[in-house]
Design goal:
Rossmann fold, about 375 residues, single chain, translation elongation factor activity, alpha/beta, eight-stranded mixed beta sheet, transferase, EarP, globular, 2 domains
Length: about 375
Amino acid sequence: MKVDWDIFCTVVDNYGDIGVTWRLARQLVAEHPCAVRLWVDDLRAFERLCPELDISASQQWQQGVDVRHWPADWQATDAADVVVAAFACQLPHAYMEAMAARERTPLWLNLDYLSAEDWIVGCHGLPSVKFQHVQKYFFFPGFQPGTGGLLRERELLVRREQFQANPVAQREFLQGLGVERAPEARLISLFAYENAGLADWLEVMANATQATHLLVPEGRVLGDVARWLGQPELAVGDVQQRGALTVQVLPFVRQDQYDLLLWCCDFNAVRGEDSFVRAQWAARPMLWHIYQQEEEAHLDKLEAFLTLYTNAMSPAARAALEGLWRAWNSGEGMAAAWVGAQEHWPELQNHARAWSLEQSLRADLAAALVQFYLNWI
């Protein structure tokens, strides 16, 4: 019998929260005996990821998922067998009462943010607070054994291998976005927050001997790109060239298309959590713009991931990659850091593939959640 799941998502940072929960909901429906309701408080942000969405509907079906608008004036609703509060969002009090009123107590999970910090291994799966007799548990995605793993659809890496081995498919996909890639150009995607270090990076690529085609989907970094180009603004379809650097603005694409974009590129600069994980599955060298937190707590998360990610690299390549990521996240020193990374490009490429393979040997997040429920009952 299918197990009923309710996933609650409050949209905090544009697309990160809804990106993770939408991907998880679809995978639970497609690959496991689960019926999923996805409760979202901001359907406009959701619409960018799922253009078919009707933002005026309180309930609709999208790709097998029962999508519900999470209203401010909550109406009485029966609780599901498994309740996932994504990223510590606060459930409606009336829904918590419904959880407590069930004949069979539901499994209540707090799906937390992704981190490589050591302490999450000890906290993953532990009980958290209680509401009446309903116990909540911590569930941490992660990169290490003893965590909840990463979101990864069952056939994802097979599809990636087939796509990356098919230059015709790649060319047709890029042409669908209006991109004509020159054979000698390195293709880079840029999806980032605002960054003071961007001009430094763009300048060094423009002055390089290696041609670069930079693809910039609509997003927050676009204003910085426009300023470097001396333009008041940039729009989808704009193409500008400065020296060896061609800059092209892409539309905001849905999740499956973004995967293909990452798979096409030689290097991917990404932001947040969902794009960060997808760039790792692309098995290409990458650069992560981590979301800034108060008191610079995000830097501890950055360093924890770098420690894991670079562990098997040579000392020189490790220093170069760490220098690049730190420069990007501090907003300075990108020119020297980028030049330094080029000296180790073959190792960065090989390591990206090895890391993707290593992570794929662990259970994915959706499977780990289902197994946690089975163990719990």
